[in-house]
Structure formats: structure tokens, C-alpha cells
From TrEMBL, chains A, B:
Reactions mediated catalytically: L-aspartate + ATP = 4-phospho-L-aspartate + ADP
Residues that coordinate or bind substrate: T64, E91
Gene Ontology terms: biological process: homoserine biosynthetic process; lysine biosynthetic process via diaminopimelate; threonine biosynthetic process
Family annotation (InterPro entries): AceGlu_kinase-like_sf (IPR036393), ACT-like_dom_sf (IPR045865), ACT_Aspartokinase (IPR054352), ACT_dom (IPR002912), AKii-LysC-BS (IPR041740), Asp/Glu/Uridylate_kinase (IPR001048), Asp_kin_monofn (IPR005260), Asp_kinase (IPR001341)
Annotated source species: Achromobacter kerstersii
Official protein name in the record: Aspartokinase
Keyword terms of this UniProt record: Amino-acid biosynthesis, ATP-binding, Kinase, Lysine biosynthesis, Nucleotide-binding, Transferase
């Protein structure tokens, strides 16, 4: 079947070809009848231009919280299977509403719950992982000229129980559906217009990146640039799905060629168009706390002896640094989320220090983590030292350092965080539009 | 597996045996967290007494209307398939909440959406009919000692689309589940404590019936005693499922033997315990309008010529009376719901009368229907004449009469309706408790 192709500029040919696109809309974008109508108008525009479109919507804003609130009112520790049964209804309702809104725009549309596709997952209720997605049903409807709506956030386990992917899971659903149907691009519509070089609330000169590699995005997502759920980025990298983050707040009828180049494209291709910057962005996190065990006897297995009980208590550890051994003892430092600091310290005093021995426990509840991230760091020397120099010039003391191939992170006193981020943003030239390599 | 049997009166043995029971709770009974807790307490009591229990809950009161309201806000004529997708979420959420409430009472429980059982239906979206129910999954959980919760109101069609049974469909779901698992009884918990000899608001002496036959219930349901959805009664009759209507407003922990004999049992067995009354109840409906075509040429096919267009316009016709032909013409009367009266008259004037010919159109918008219903009428003569005599003594003119094997209905001026109902209730001795036949 040939879909009608509409050009938006009179007399001109569209530059793009007919393609297969996944749209994902968050809870805010689906938050009212009027907003659902706007989503329908935007999708209708893509459909009218000849694209095949699959839409993955979240539940209407507030709905999932309302449902889970009822469950928690009944029982403080509700059963995961039943929670998923309840929570999954939010996306099912919003998907049906979007189908009706599209039909009202004259666009044939059909919605499917996760189990109808099916989106298969494991049985980890409330935090399930997608194992496979059958594309036959989706393809059948696309070939019949329909827009297909697939509920985000949910699937079905091998025993036929409903599962959910956990908070933010709709991003992962969208990328997974895009991978399954081999979509040309997965568009994540959200309330920001893209990924920035750092948080514009801290650095007003922060710039939206036109392109970012998925490795960089992974490092930034995990460091607190909360644009996309990190699992969705992992998925995109694994299945090489180009993902674009863009705004759902623009006029839904803006010309398609404008929309197609807006936002930030997260790509797995390091092609000629990639920006030339060595460092792409500055990520940071305020809610860190540092714990150091001084003069721990340095023997094999010491790291596990310290961190094993911490992990068993479900406390996430972020940075870990162990200094070189001096006279048979070593200093062992790590950071945890500030919310879990008290629990971690209590655990160390009660269980760990009596077992492993340590001269002293030194803690700092008010530290921040600042990271520079960039794929260009792979092939450029001196990036870390420019970071250290910049911070030193501002009189900021570095307490811990940790590096990966495309990221360098430091722990500093949290009162210097904004100052450090601004200085680094300027030092790495992120306030100026980069020149393309070509 | 042997379930624990608890006796409620110390030292005594329970009179009942372990049985398989279906409970159905309406939207009001499920209307808040506290009410869901009460439902759980009641179900837990039955479970603790050794019964296997399947529960069919409605959506929380107001929820279905809220969801369908959103859909109608988006489109005045929303697609049926998508409406069902949306509406079915109400029962799915309430079922999950009830499972959590039961677990909080220490009762193992698991909820299933219609498609998970599966409850198979045809593809008539928003008014689907159940074709079959697979009992394997339910039985597996019952045998494992669990209470099983099955969403009311919904199923899955042969193509895997979600369907709903239409308003009040949860009653039908419950009876159908009871039929599928061969339950000993289906208990419909509602906000009334049973079926009455007539509406207590009209006749304060109206009595709750302990037992009523399903044929009588069918006649009463269709005549306006809106305790149970009529399709559920048909289902109960077809599959010989004993149904009991009882109150969900009693203390959930009242002794089980009290609860087991409360309400009204709708039975297909005309056994010795059936009440001896000739007439079981007086049903009535206010919202009737009468239409008469005078002097219609009497020829074959005349009834279809008149009522065919009416049915095609989706106007429900209730009573139909055609008098004997006089001089080649006949008078043809029927009643419609008062809401559809104007549309029916307009249709007759525009289409029917020009086609069939009639001397005159006579209408009365303010009539009521009063019916006496009773299985005993089969074997008792003179029942109808006592009805006519009673009304005559009150000076009430009878405008139309229609009879079936267990029912006699009359159309009267609606201002005499209450008077007629009270007089009939007394004349047939319904204000006194009947003597059992035995």
C-alpha cells in the first residue's frame, strides 16, 4: 500500500523519504484531553507526510501515582504482581484515548496493551526487563495504513502475568519497539527540547547539543542529566537505534522538516557530522556523601569485605577509590547517595569495621560530583589535566578522582559545585557552538 | 489439598459443607479503600471457613464513567474497540486492589483480567456476549488454596481484542464464571438486601422474598426491578446456577450461617421449599408511552410494516396489542419508552402511516405498566381476573392487557400507578409472609 505523501512547502519536494518512526510521549504530554489532542495532531502530521508511525504513550500525568497510592493505602508492602496489574492500567487507558483522538483527526489508529503485541518480559514484577517483542501485529496494522499505539511501561511474563518495567520504563518500551520493528528513528517527545552541555539552571550559557553519542549519553544519564531513562539508552546502543530527544511543547503543526532536525540526536555512528568538541558536556550530582576508612589492613579481598555488606543492605555505591598501600595499610574511600549516608555509616560501624579493622572512619556528607564527558577524550591527551587546572585556578580542592575512557569525575566540596561547573563549561569551550569536523 | 474448616459457633459443627462459591461486588461495594478492605474481610471469612471463593468485582464507583467521559470529551462518537480498551481498565485496577487487600488479611489471592482467564466473547465491542470461559487457570489457583479474583465486565474476542459486556455486565461475568467452574452458588453482593415483592418506596409493606424462581426474576428484571442485570438471570437459568442477591452493607464479619440464608435466592428448582404464593411480586414501570394506530387496513404483514421501521430506528417496543379485525380494519397499539415517544411518533407520521394507511393516530404519553408475576399462575385459574377486579374496585381503567404464562401486565393511566400497585400487593396477600408448601 502506498501512503499519501504531503509536502509542506508548496512546490518543493520533501528532502526526507518515507520512513518508519516511533514516537514516545511522556505523562506530561498526555496529561489532559487537550494535550492528547495535540499529540494526535502531531502524529497525524507525520502520518499525512507518508511516514509509518508507532506511538508509545505514558499514562496521563499523575495517574500511575494515584493508582499506586491506592494500593499502598491498602497495604504498606503490596504484592508486586498485583501492583503491576494495577499500574499497567494507566497506559492502557491513555493509549485508548490517543487512538480515539487520532481517529477524530481522520487517522486510522489502533491501540495495543503490552500483552497484545506481545512485549515479552521476565517475571521481575515492578522492574521487569524486556526479552523480546513480536513485530507481526504491529507490522500488519502499519501495512494496513494504521498508526499503531503500543502501551509503554509494560509487558507479559512467560506465565501470562502482566509486568511493568518500573518508573520511566516507557522510554525503554519505545526504544525496544523501535529496535523490534527496525525503525529509522525513535523520537522521545518530552518537556525539554534536547540534551544540554550542562544544566542551564547552573550555567545560563549551556547549549543544546544537536548530536551526542550514546556512550556519552550513558555517562551523562547515569550522572544525573535526567532526560532519558538510562536503560533506554543502553537498549538504543545495543540495538543501534537512533534516538532523538525533542520537545512536545512546540506547536504540533510546525513544518516536519523543522521538527526532524530539532532536539538532540543520540547516535551510535561517529560519522563526519559529529561535533568536534573533545568534551561534550559537564554532568554533576549534588546528592553525594563520601566515606573513607583510614588505615585498613591491606590484604586480598578487602574491597569485598567492606562493600559486600553495603551492597547486601541495598545501598548503591557510586565512586570507589583505593589508594596505594603504605606500610601494610590502605585508605579506602567511596561515595553513596546522601539519603543513604546515615544507614551506610551505621552499617560500617556495626559490621564492617569490627570485622576488617580500620584506624579511623572519616566522612563528608556535603560533597558533589562533577564530571566531564566526551567521546573526543579517547583521542586527546591533557583533557583531565585541563580539568584539574581549571578547578585549581578557582581554588577548588579535589577530594577524589575517578576516570573512564570517555569521562573524568571529581568529588569536591558541594558549595563549590556551581562554580566548578561554570568554570569547566567555559574552559572546554562549551558555551560556543562547535565547528563541525568536515 | 484440604482447606482449614473453621466453625463460628463454639462447639457446634457447621451445617454447610465445603463448597465452591462465586462472590460478585458492585461498584459501590468497591467504592473506596475502606470498602475494598471490608470486601476483603468478608471474603476472608468465607475462605477461613473452608470454602473455595472466586470474586468478581466491578470497577470502583464512578471510575467507568470518568474513563468514558474522557473518551467522549475527545470524540463524540468514539470507536467501540478503543472504548473497551479504556473501560476495561477500571475492573483491572479494582481487582488488583482487592487482591492486595486480601493478602493484607493473610489470604493468598491472585487477580486476573478477563483475557488472562480467558473469558472469551464475540466481537461486539461495548456489548459483547460471553461465548466460553476456560476454568483451568481458576481451578489451578483454587487448588493451590488461593482466592481467585476475575475482573467483571470484560473478555477477549477471537482476534485478541479486549471487549466489554456493557453496563451491568459484571453480574453476567459472575454468573458465567459460576457456570464455568460449576459453583455451588453465585452470591451477588449489592446495596439492597434482596428482591422484594414490589418496590418498598411505593408499598411500605413490601416484603423481601427468601426464594424466587429465575423465570419470575426474568419477568421482574425486565419490568424494572433493577436488582440484577437481566442477561445475568438468563445465564443463570440457562446454566442452572443458583444466584443469591444479598447486601454488602452488613458487617463483613456476621456469622457465616446467617449470611448464607440472607438475601434472596434465585433458583431454578421448584422444590418443596418454594413459597406457596400464586403471585410472587408486583412489578411496574412509569416511563411508558402508548401509541395506537386506529383503523389500519388489516392485511398480512401489517405488524411488520408498522414495527419494522420502528425497530430499524433502534426504538425498543415493549407491549404490542392488536385487536380483532372489524370491517377489514384493525386497531394496532404498542408502548415505547417515554424518552423515545417523540421520535417514534415523528417516524410513524413520516414513514409508516403514509405507507400502511390509518384513520387516526392516538397517543398517550403518560401511562404506566403494572404486572403481576408468579410461577404459581401456571396452575391457578382466576389470577388475572382477581387483578382486573382489584383495579376496577379502585376505579382504575385498564387500557391494554398482555399476558404470558407467569405474568399479566396492564397499561393504566400513570397517575393511578401507586394506587394500583398497593391494591394488588394487598389483594394477592404479598404483605403477609407466605406459608411454605411443606
Amino acid at each position: 500500500m502506498v501512503l499519501p505523501v504531503t509536502t509542506f512547502a508548496a512546490g518543493s519536494q520533501p528532502e526526507y523519504e518515507m520512513s518508519l518512526i516511533v514516537h514516545k510521549y511522556g505523562g506530561t504530554s498526555m496529561g489532559s484531553v487537550e494535550r492528547i489532542r495535540n499529540v494526535a495532531r502531531r502524529v497525524a502530521k507525520w502520518h499525512a507526510a507518508g511516514h509509518q508511525v508507532v506511538v508509545v504513550p505514558s499514562a496521563m500525568a499523575g495517574e500511575t501515582n494515584r493508582l499506586l497510592g491506592l494500593a499502598r493505602e491498602i497495604s504498606p508492602q503490596p504484592d508486586g504482581r498485583e501492583l503491576d496489574m494495577i499500574a499497567a492500567t494507566g497506559e492502557q487507558a491513555s493509549s485508548g484515548l490517543l487512538a480515539i483522538a487520532l481517529q477524530a483527526e481522520g487517522v486510522p489508529a489502533r491501540s495495543y496493551a503490552g500483552w497484545q503485541v506481545p512485549v515479552r518480559t521476565d517475571s521481575s514484577f515492578t522492574k521487569a526487563r524486556i526479552s523480546s517483542i513480536d513485530d507481526a501485529r504491529i507490522r500488519g496494522d502499519l501495512d494496513a495504513g494504521r498508526v499503531v499505539i503500543v502501551t509503554g511501561f509494560q509487558g507479559i511474563d512467560p506465565e501470562g502475568h502482566i509486568t511493568t518495567l518500573g518508573r520511566g520504563g516507557s522510554d525503554t518500551s519505545a526504544v525496544a519497539v523501535a529496535a523490534a520493528i527496525k525503525a529509522d528513528e525513535c523520537l522521545i517527545y518530552t518537556d525539554v527540547d534536547g540534551v544540554y552541555t550542562t544544566d542551564p539552571r547552573v550555567v545560563p550559557e549551556a547549549r543544546r547539543m544537536a548530536v551526542v553519542s550514546f556512550e556519552e549519553m550513558l555517562e551523562m544519564a547515569s550522572l544525573g542529566s535526567k532526560v532519558l531513562q538510562i536503560r533506554s539508552v543502553e537498549f538504543a546502543g545495543k540495538y543501534r537505534v537512533p534516538v532523538r530527544v525533542l520537545s512536545s511543547l512546540t506547536d504540533p503543526l510546525i513544518p516536519l522538516d523543522e521538527e526532524m532536525v530539532s532536539g538532540t540526536l543520540i547516535t551510535f555512528e561517529e560519522d563526519e557530522k559529529m561535533e568536534a568538541a573533545v568534551v561534550s558536556g559537564i554532568a554533576f550530582s549534588r546528592d553525594e556523601a563520601k566515606i573513607t576508612l583510614l588505615a585498613v589492613p591491606d590484604k586480598p579481598g578487602i574491597a569485598f569485605s567492606i562493600l559486600g555488606p553495603v551492597a547486601a543492605a541495598n545501598i548503591d555505591v557510586d565512586m570507589i577509590v583505593q589508594n596505594q598501600s603504605v606500610a601494610g595499610t590502605t585508605d579506602f574511600s567511596f561515595t553513596v547517595n546522601r539519603n543513604e549516608f546515615a544507614r551506610a555509616v551505621e552499617l560500617l560501624k556495626r559490621e564492617v569495621i569490627p570485622a576488617v579493622g580500620a584506624r579511623e572512619l572519616s566522612t563528608d556528607e556535603k560533597v558533589a560530583k562533577v564530571s566531564i564527558v566526551g567521546i573526543g577524550m579517547r583521542s586527546h591527551v591533557g583533557v583531565a589535566s585541563l580539568m584539574f587546572q581549571t578547578l585549581s585556578q578557582e581554588g577548588i580542592n579535589i577530594q577524589m578522582i575517578s576516570t573512564s575512557e570517555i569521562k573524568t569525575s571529581v568529588i569536591i566540596d558541594d558549595k563549590y559545585m556551581e562554580l566548578g561547573v561554570r568554570a569547566l563549561h567555559k574552559a572546554f569551550g562549551l558555551d560556543q557552538a562547535p565547528a563541525a569536523k568536515e
